[in-house]
Amino acid sequence: MKKVMNILAPIIATIIILIAWELVVKGLNISEKLIPAPSGIWKSLVENFGPVIFKDLCISVKNIVIGYIIAVPVGFVIAALCSQFKLITKSITPLLIILMITPMSTLVPIFKLNMGASSMLKILVIVLQVTPVVALNSLVGFSNPPEKNVLVLKSMGCGRWKTFFNATFPNALPQVFTGMELGCILGTIASMGADIAVGQGGLGYRVSIYASFTATSSAFATIVVAAVVGVVLFEIVSTIERVVMKWK
User: Fold this and answer.
1) In terms of C-beta density within 10 A (0-12 exposed, 13-18 middle, 19 or more buried), how is residue 101 classed?
2) What is the pLDDT of residue 152?
3) Do the Cβ atoms of 204 and 226 come closer than 8 Å?
4) Could you say which DSSP state residue 215 is in?
5) Torsion sign over Cα 205, 131, 108, 67
6) pLDDT above 60 (res 215)
7) What's the sign of the alpha-carbon dihedral 208, 222, 195, 183?
């Protein structure tokens, strides 16, 4: 029953919000160019998804997946090194924090000087946005290993890295997956910002095009698609986490 309620609760809440939104927009006669009703957004999504939005969806998903696949192992390696060497931690942690709080779209004009308007630039933006959150969350877990397990392994003659992979890493999996889940959301946001700043297709680029023509319903429909991408990626990582951590 609890599992059913966990599924139904967000669905019911979403339906209530959409109904209220529809009633407010229609009841107050708010212009569709200002705030479209959910019904108008759905109509635009159905009309434009196949002929227009789908192509941009493929571009964005490709960039997000490539950037994510690069960022996760890089973030993991950075966190692993930092957990073993305090000097590296003090050197790199401030940089990771700066990268995490810096809107990557503000750096795009600088990167464009050397890389031009390309998909590689978008992927770089995603990597720079996802890597810090994966690294910092993983580092939290790596910095608090189970002392008893570590002492037992060291007493058995295990070295630094053998101890890390047999005791520290398994214990830190919840934090590692938290960083990976947050990376899905931040990667999607970074992709949207990069699309807007760079152009050359993508969901963010499509939103900016629709907005410039005051096609607000279509812009909202594209934003909905981007949100679904982020949620789906998040759920994929969450499912992997549940499978991997059955033992806990």
Assistant:
1) exposed
2) 67
3) yes
4) -
5) negative
6) yes
7) positive
Q: What are phi and psi of 145, to 5 degrees?
A: -75, 155
Other beta carbons less than 10 A from residue 37's beta carbon: 19
The tokens 């696949």 sit on which residue?
Answer: 69
Res 247: pLDDT: 56
CB 79 within 8 A of CB 85: no
Locate tokens 């290993």: which residue? 145
CA 110 to chain centre: 23
Q: Give the residue, 87 or 149, on which the prediction is more confident.
A: 87
Instruction: Give 33's DSSP letter.
Output: T
Amino acid at 95: L
The amino acid at 185: I
- Maximal CA-CA distance, the chain: 75
- Paired tokens of 163: 């101890």
pLDDT reading at 236 higher than 70: yes
| Locus of tokens 């999504």 | 45
pLDDT tens digits, one per residue of 151-175? 766 667 677 677 777 777 777 888 8
- The reported pLDDT for the residue numbered 201 is 84
Could you give phi then psi for residue 33, rounded to 5 degrees?
-70, -20
In this structure, the number of other CB atoms found within 10 A of the CB of residue 146 comes to: 13
Handedness of CA 146, 148, 151, 155 (dihedral sign): negative
Q: Could you say which DSSP state residue 105 is in?
A: G
